[in-house]
């Protein structure tokens, strides 16, 4: 055991050092949604919370293809850095911004279409009206969000994650401030009610994108990658490469997010109280999940850098280190969920004991599937580092849509387990993915040879 620790200690240390700022940045992103729900729930009540929460889930679903697709950029930048190719890094950055703008416009339009047909989701009239208008705000805000995600790939891929972290935390504070000012209408700010929360998210995301891009273009640490000679280099091939590798990765993310969004809809079919309880519990689970995606991103960067250096041993160690870290982290999160579920729910709602009790039981379920959730997302990340994106998409489609959702519907409606049954289905899908994705990674690692690493992903 001591020998194993000595072998992996440097990799664990490097991955943890890279993970912490990314985890904090990821937490900041998801905490914007948590902040929105906290302000809406405490200031306006359960029904506005249900409408806004459902819109957040659907908007996250629509945007997941773009966010997941753009996330391949950090691994590609890390691979280029491993080859000491500064020109390649420059072209990947510019190509990522073009892809972000393209996907942002397309997915914003798709979000508006979803908002138009919001009534088809079978919710109550009040939840439908709130959800439709909230969705439009969030759809527009995806454009600056995608630009931020694309620019962030450069920072993370070059192992400068603190830049995006600092900007994200600043935006989180700005989002909380605007939530209060715009929901209540303080001073010169208009009273927008529940839609003030959506406007706060839009303004915060604009701040994030503009600040990060301006910083990158003016910072000394990035100057080696922005030499004048690089400006004339064509990026069309790199745009196509990001789309070719990114879209399957985006669909991998989509299949998981879609599972949780459809679970939210099923909870809404059971009633507004069940939906509100589900939104509280899934908000908390999403917080730990997004933190786990930070470890996943660090794993993808470390694996990608080793992949670029043609080192099979380094690839294996980077993958194992990421899986160990996420197991420890999510294990600690599971303990918190299982022991402090009532207190966590009390942060969202007051004076609604029925919803609070149901939400507390769902938080316990969230604690049970923490380990599976963490392992599967890191599995996707380390495979992304090897530019392996097609098979993970198939695995997640199978795990979430063939295993998870049918179990949720069967237990929730046919067998009468209500919203608890829906969450048992989520647990089944996550566990299946958590088993299959690491198996895929270690099979690919066994195929690697120091002189032929480029044959890894097939």
Automatic annotation (TrEMBL):
Principal subcellular localization: membrane
Report membrane topology.
Multi-pass membrane protein
Q: Which residues cross the membrane?
A: 20-40, 52-77, 97-118, 130-151, 163-183, 195-217, 250-270, 276-298, 318-338, 358-383, 395-414, 420-439
Q: Where in the cell is it found?
A: Cell membrane
Top-level taxonomic group: Bacteria
- The answer to whether keyword Metal-binding applies is no
Q: Which UniProt keywords apply?
A: Antiport, Cell membrane, Ion transport, Membrane, Transmembrane, Transmembrane helix, Transport
Q: Name one Pfam family in it.
A: MatE
Name the NCBIfam families for this protein.
Answer: matE (TIGR00797)
UniProt protein name: Multidrug-efflux transporter
The protein's organism comes out as Larkinella bovis
